[in-house]
What does this fold into?
Amino acid sequence: MADKTIWETIETTGEQLLKTVKNIVEAGNVRRVRIRQKDHSIAEFPLTVGVIGTVFAPMLVAVGALAAVLTECSIDVEKVATKDTATDGARAE
It folds into this structure.
């Protein structure tokens, strides 16, 4: 049986973007991070278990560059559904 995934959307500002993405990745259980401004997808980063240093650093550089030009944006986070995340209001797909 395939893992069920859920998407969670976090609204943030450009100046908080890098900090928010770092916190999301450090929390774990994340498959993909998508940064949007209104209806336009600006960047999408697939993440896997074991993403470390040399792979993670270029993504943070890109997110930092985006933070410099974006004022308001949304971060869509794809996670693997667990019993406690399936009931917290995130949309399942």
